[in-house]
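Marked as duplicate of an earlier ticket. Keeping the data here for the record.
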Amino acid sequence: MNYSFFIRGGIFLEPMNFIKPYPSFLLLLLFQFIILNEILAQTPIVPLATDCNSWLNIKAPGGGVRIGDLDIPGNHLTVEAMITRTALPLDTTSHGQGDIVSKQSDPNDANYLLRADRAEITTTNGYFRTAPVCKFESNKTYHIAMVYNGNTLKFYRNGFLLSEVPCSGNMITNNWITTIGEYAWQPGYYGTALIGYINEVRIWDVARTQDELRTYLNNPLPSPTTQTGLKAYYQFDDLQNKQGNASWNGSIVGDAAINATNPLCSFVQDSCTVICDEKIDFGFRQSLCNPSLVSFITDNVGIEKVRWDFGTAGISDSFTPTIDFGNTLQNIPIRLTSTFSDGCLAQVEKSILIGSGDGSPLQLLDTTVCKGVELKFTAPESISYCWNSSTGSTGLGLREQTIIADASQQIFINRIELGDNLIVNGDFQSGNELFSSDYLFSPTGGVPGNYTIGNNPKAWDGQINCDLPAPASGMMLVNGEMITGTTIWKYTKTISTGTDYIFGFSISNLKTGNPRIHVYINGAKIDQVEFGNGALCTWQEYQLFWNSGSSDQIEIKLVTGLLPTGSNVFALDNIMLSEYNLFSEYIHVNVDEAPFINAISDVEICSGQKKLLSVETDAPASIQWYPDTNISNSNSLTPEVSPGVTTTYYVSTESAPGCKVIDSVQVSVKPIPEFTLSESEIDLCEGMETTIRATGGTTYEWYNAADFISDNAVLSLDGTESGIFKVIIKDELCNISDTLTSIVTIKPLPQISIEKSNDIDCKQTVATLEVIGAARLEWLPESSIIETGINYIRVAPGGSTMYYVKAFDTNGCYVTDSTLVNFSAINGGEDIKMPNAFSPNGDNKNECYGASNLDFLSGYQLVIWNRWGQQVYNSQKPGECWNGTLKGIRQPAGTYVYQLKGSSACGIVNKKGTIELIR
C-alpha cells in the first residue's frame, strides 16, 4: 500500500499503523501487476518441432509421472515444460491453474513448484511466489518456465516474462518426490493436476536467461547429456531421464500415459498479454500556478503505445498527457501500461498527491490600506513561487510581490518548500566523492570521456572560451563526447515508500553544442532532455517530480543521450533529491478611499527666523504634524515652525475607516551668510584684464566712485582705469547687507628698443641682439641662441630668423617686440683670395704662404705638392702657413700646387691652384 505525506496548515500528517494479518506473500502480490488491459495480436501458428505422438497424457486428478527426490539446493534454478490443457483443474481458487512440476507440500517447504500461471519456492528467507498472471486458454500449447537467480523469481510463458518478485536466500530442500503433472505431497489430494498433455520437461540447477529459454522454446534440447546445469530432461516416448542420470528415471502414477498423441500440439507463440523484462516508470510536473494541472512524463524509446489510467480523471494514450484533477487535494492512483515494439507490456502503478496543502495566511500589520498604496509581500523561503490576485495580477518565480492597492482583493501564493537534500555532495563540496561515473576522472579536459571536479572550466580545458559564474564550492565538469548510454553520474539512497520527491540539477553548456541527458530512476528511463539552446556558460535548471511507490531505495543515473552535432562539454552542479510540499496561502487586502491632503510647498528660512506652514484637507479633525519639535501646534492647519536646522515636517490625516495619508514639507534653514571679496588690493599692468569676485549675497551692486558699473557677482576689469571699486552685497532672505571695496592701481608698460650688431653671411655667422630699457628678457626661438646676457643674446641662426623678446620692467609689466636677423650667401669659398707667389728669402716680405681670416671654415685643410707630386705641406689650422721647407730643408724655387678644403655656412669649399716659390 502506498502512503503519501504532506503538510497541511503546518501540521505533518503521518500514515496510520495498519495490522497485517496476511502472509508476506499476499502483501507482495499487492505490488504486482494484477490486471493488464491490453491483448497482443496472436502470431501465426507454428507446428511444434517436438513429436506430437510422444506426450505424457494426464486424464484425471492423481495421474502423472514421479521421478524421485530430485533436490535443487543453492540459489539458482530453472524448470520448464511444454503443456496443453484440455480441462480446468478441479481447484482453481487458491492453487492456480494446474501443477506442472511439483516438489512441495505447502508454502513452508516448496523446493520448487511450477504451475501453469505462477512459480513458487521457499528459501532460507521465506516463501516467495510470482503474482498470478492472466489465465491461458485451454486446448492450446504453451512453453512454461520458472527461473530463480538469487535475486528474483521469474515466471515466463512462451519466452516472455509475465511476472517476477524480488527473492533471496538459498532454496530449502525436502524429501518429497518430484512429480510431473500433479501435487508432490499426495497426487490427487487437492485436485491440482494439469488435465491434458505435458512434454519437454527440463530441470536445471542454473538460472537460464530469457534468450536461452527462447532458443529451444519449441525444439528438443540438442546433446542433453552435455548441457551445463541440466539435471533432468523428459520426452515422453519413454520414462527415461534424457540427461543421462538414471537415478531420475520416471514412473507412471494414476490415470496417465506416455507416447500419447497430442492433437493440439501446434504452437501458438503467445496467447496472452506478456510482461516485458523492461522497467518503466514515470515522472510528473505540477503547474505551480494551478497545482491541479499535472503533466506526466515517461520514456518513449522502443515503446509503440502507452495507456494512462487516472481513475475518475480518465484515460489517456498520450506519451506526455496533461490532466486537470480539480482543486481538491487528493491522492490519485495512476497506472501506466507501456506496449513495446515486440508486443510485450510493462506496467507501473502508484498513488501521488495532487493539489496543494493550505499554509498559514500571510500577515500584514493592517489589511486595510488606502487606495493607490504600494504593498510588498514576502513569502517564506521556497524554491519556486506563483503569485495571483483576484484582480488578475501574476508574479511567477518571485519571492517578493509588489502591488498597487487599487481595489479590495485577495492575494494568493503557491509555493514549493523542500525538505533536506538526500543527495550528499550534490554540490560537489566534497570533491570527487560519494557518487560514481563511467567517465574517467582527470584534472585535464579536452579528452572525450573525462571529467573533473572544480570551479574553473578554462583551467580544465583551454579550449573553453567562456567564463562560468563559479559557485563557492565546485562543479562537475564533463567532456561527454563518448558513446550514447554512458553513465555520467550515479547515486543510490534509501528513501521512504509511497512518497513524492523532487529531483533536480543545474547544467551549463561550455562549448558549441546541445548536451542531451537521459534521466534514469531505478533502472527505468523517465526523461530525456536537450540543454544549451546555443547559450554558453549560462546555468539552466532541471526539475522532475517522482513518486517512490513501493521502492524503499532510489538509484538515480544521468546518462549520455544521442550526441549533438557540436561539442558535448558541460558542467553539472546542485544535484538534489528532496521531499517537498506545495502550499497555497493567501491574504485579504481591503482598500479604502484616501482623504485629500495637500501641504504647502517646500520653503527656506534664514537661521533664527520663523515660518508659518499650512495644509489643505477634507479631514481636518485628524491633522497631525511630526516631528513635534519647534512647532507651535502639531494639530493645527497653520502651525508656525522655527527649526534650527533643515527639517522635513510630515502631516497626516486619517479617514474614519482608518485610511491614513501623508504629505510633507521641507523647511530648509539657511545659515547667516558671510560676505567676501576675492581681492581687496590689485596692481594691474596697463591693458591687463582681471576679475574681482564677490560672494555670500543674493544681489550685488558695483560702483567706481559714484558711478554704477555692474550688478553681477563678478566684476571684470580691462586694465585701463585705476580707482577704488565698491560693491554693495545683500542677502534678501536674511535681510542683511554690507559694502566692501577693492583698490585697483594701473602700472605703465616698459619702453624698450632693440639694437642688432649685424646680419650674417657665409663668413660672419654670429650676431648680437641688445635690448635697451628692460629689467628682464625672455627670447624666442631658443634653438639658435648661443649666449645669453642680462640685456643681450648672441645668435647663430642657420638662415634668416625673426627673434621675439618679452621685456619685463621691475613691476613685472612687459611688452613684446621682435627683430629680423637676415642671412646673405656671400663670403663663400669662391670669395677666398689665395696668393700666387711668395719669396721665403729672409727679407721679411712674403716669407710664408697661406690665407688669413679663414676661421669661419670648419674642417679646414691646406695641402701643397711639388711638381713631382710629393706632399711638402699639410695643415688643418687656419692661422698657419708654409715657410718653403720640408723637414727643415729649403725647397727649390719653382711652381707648386695647392688645395684648400673646408665648409662654411654656404656649403663646401674646395679651392685649387698653383703658386710660385721665389728664391
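See parent ticket for discussion. The chain has a mean pLDDT of 85.
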